[in-house]
Amino acid sequence: MQEESVRAPRDEAPYTLDQPAPRVLGFWDQSAFWANLGVSLLAFSGAYTVLAPTEDGRPTISITAGITAMIVGTLIGGLMLGLAAVPGARTGQPAMVLLRGLFGARPSYLPTVLNIAQLVGWGTFELITIAGAARALYDGVPRWAYVVAAGVITTVLTIWPLGSVRLLRRYVTVAVCLALVYFYIQLLHVTVAVCLALVYFYIQLLREPLPDLNQGSWGGFWIGADAALAVSISWVPVAADYTRHSRTQRAAFGSAAVGYSVTQIIAYVLGLFALALVAGDSSRIYDPFLHVTLGALVFAVFVLREADQSFANVYSTAVSIQNLVPRADRRVLSVALGVLITVLALALDINDYASFLSLIGSVFVPMLGVLAADFFLGSGRRGWDTGRSAPARWNMIVAWLVGIAVYQLINPGTVAHWTDLWQDVQRSLHFTPASWMSASLFSFLAAAAAALLLKPLGRRSGSGSGSASGPRSDAAA
């Protein structure tokens, strides 16, 4: 009776890993959730990263090339996100518990810790972004008040995660879609007026030409595509935390792949469009939104619903911690994490996160390659052992490391000593990556190929209680 009294409601996420996850989310519930995650203030402020800027901040590709790179990167990232969504729907297991079946129980702790670190970072950055956008709307309130308010909203949403997902579907998604349409109409009107004025002066004075969206090269196309892909990939290690509540695998894949991709493309194109209006000055990226009629009111919709980004990060951090401590109550973890990211957001000022995205991609893109190969083509078809005593699978770990190495050789990133290390490796191998090489695609394919090639070296095991085709694993055993 005591154990039963602490169980979560039947239509809500379980409090601990030893409780079953209800299958209550349909296609539209999940589509609304992923669609909202695809529309972010980061899509506006981060649109600049798909222009492959140099160290001094100058874009290396044109706006047109950036839009194309963003669309390609987002579509590929959306498909990868869809692949990551299926295992959760089939097994009912959260993302980090699935890694017990892929790598083994104890080896899964390393990617779990990495995931916790990056989710705390993202959660902190989201609160900082919300506070910055809110102050752009109204600076009469101190920054700390906005941070604390965003932290409180985030924590409250995290206590009832499935209820929050359904709330997004019923109300927030409609408001966000209307806001997107409004800004497209307003910014298009402004751009037409500006272009007409420039055409007039060009005809009259035969001087200044129209701004050229094609100005710049396509040489950094795949760098820009990888930047967009990295944003999608950042959700890969948490996808199963939500799709384990999906009613069907098809709904999990379709909602993640399509729902997220469509809205991220729309948001990024709008961000690049706004960037063109401010002559590429990323520090003024919000100006076009705030200066149109009713712009501040409509922009407030984006600021308020940005909390769903931090909510997803905090909830998945709590679930990831449960892979290490299965019987920990996610409600207690959520409150503690909400306080933590609020304190960090008050203390820190994060200005550049392009290198952060690159580092995330270098770890989780090849991990997804290994997971997809083994889950759909390898031992996952028979069933993974996702119990706490699952044996280590060193062949899959080696395949993951191969993928990470391929990524770093093509794109060593900009993280100080780490970058220097891989540049030294490049020189020792006499390897110079070509501009057409995509670090994300090549590392994904290399990791998947390595997983299939190394499969015979792995230890054969039966489909324990946590099989990919079965209902639940003994996660808390």
Structure description:
The protein is mostly helical and 477 residues long. It has a single domain (15-352), classed as Orthogonal Bundle (Hydantoin permease), CATH 1.10.4160. It is 67% helix and 0% strand. The longest helix has 45 residues, at 161-205.
N-to-C span: 20 Å
The CATH architecture assignment turns out to be Orthogonal Bundle
Count of separate DSSP helical elements: 19
What kind of sheet is the major sheet? none
CATH fold group: Hydantoin permease
Number of E-type strands: 0
CATH secondary-structure class: Mainly Alpha
Broad shape = globular
Whole-number count of domains: 1
Binned, the helix content reads 55-70%
Q: Note poorly predicted spans.
A: 1-5, 187-211, 460-477
Give the rounded overall mean pLDDT: 79
Radius of gyration: 23 Å
Instruction: State the fourth-level CATH superfamily.
Output: Hydantoin permease
| Helix/strand class | mainly alpha
Order of helices and strands: HHHHHHHHHHHHHHHHHHH
Strand content range: under 5%
Describe the structure in brief.
The chain is mainly α and 477 residues long.
List keywords for this structure.
single chain; CodB; Hydantoin permease; 477 residues; mainly alpha; globular; membrane
List the helices and strands and how they pair.
Layout: H1 2-5, H2 27-38, H3 41-45, H4 63-91, H5 95-103, H6 109-137, H7 143-159, H8 161-205, H9 221-233, H10 239-243, H11 249-277, H12 287-290, H13 295-305, H14 307-324, H15 330-347, H16 354-377, H17 394-410, H18 416-428, H19 439-454
